[in-house]
Amino acid sequence: MYIRISILLVSFVLFSTGCQQNNAENDHPKEKHNNQYMQISDQNPDDRNHLDNEQLATHLANVASDVPNVNNATAIIAGPYAVVGIDVDEHLDRSRVGTIKYSVSEALQHDPYGKTAVVIADGDITERIRLMGMKIREGYPIQGIIDELSAIVGRYMPDFPINENQPSNPDQNKEIISDQEKENLDHIEKEQSKD
């Protein structure tokens, strides 16, 4: 019996010393900072302050306006997408305007709210975007967008003069009826056109 107790006591001592942690061996060097542990919180990128569309448009316009050579900027938000119109000096050549647009796109790409923004440098379209934003703020979101989009399409859609010498299309219904029925039909049409 004495041997059994001795074996149990020795196994208990070996088991308890084997299960002890040696903190110096288990420390991860990346987790140490001046011999103290740092607590790192798990951050979710969606925990940032949520802005409404008007605040978000103002924020994106401010980010675009901070880029050098941008005189003014305006933005509108459409769901997850944003359209940012920039105003640049009208005397700049096309390649310089493209460089400025790229700089604005890059600045918006680094902003957490501007990742899906489209940048436009056309003066007329920028003015239309500004007017759309103004009508949206006034409480006419759908009508404001429709009015300005129709103005944009109307400006860029070509107008064609009406061709005066168009061939007349024969009335196929009159071709399959007899001459008597044609006369009756013509008479009925004249009577109805008098009213």
Brief summary of the model shown:
The chain is built from eight helices and five strands, in the order H-H-E-E-H-E-E-H-E-H-H-H-H. By secondary structure, it is mainly alpha-helical. The model has no long low-confidence stretch (mean pLDDT 76).
- DSSP summary, beta strand count: 5
Architecture of the domain at 53-156, CATH level 2? 2-Layer Sandwich
Percent helix among the residues? 40-55%
Give the DSSP E fraction (strand runs of 2 or more residues): 5-15%
Task: Return the string of H and E elements.
Answer: HHEEHEEHEHHHH
* End-to-end C-alpha gap: 128 Å
* Text of the CATH class of the domain at 53-156: Alpha Beta
Q: Total helix count? A: 8
Largest sheet: 3 strands, mixed
Relevant CATH superfamily of the domain at 53-156: Cation efflux protein, cytoplasmic domain
Arithmetic mean pLDDT = 76
CATH fold label of the domain at 53-156: Alpha-Beta Plaits
Low-confidence stretches: none
Order of strands, main sheet, comes to 3-4-5
- Helix/strand/pairing class, anyone? mainly alpha
CA-atom Rg in angstroms: 38 Å
What is the overall shape? elongated
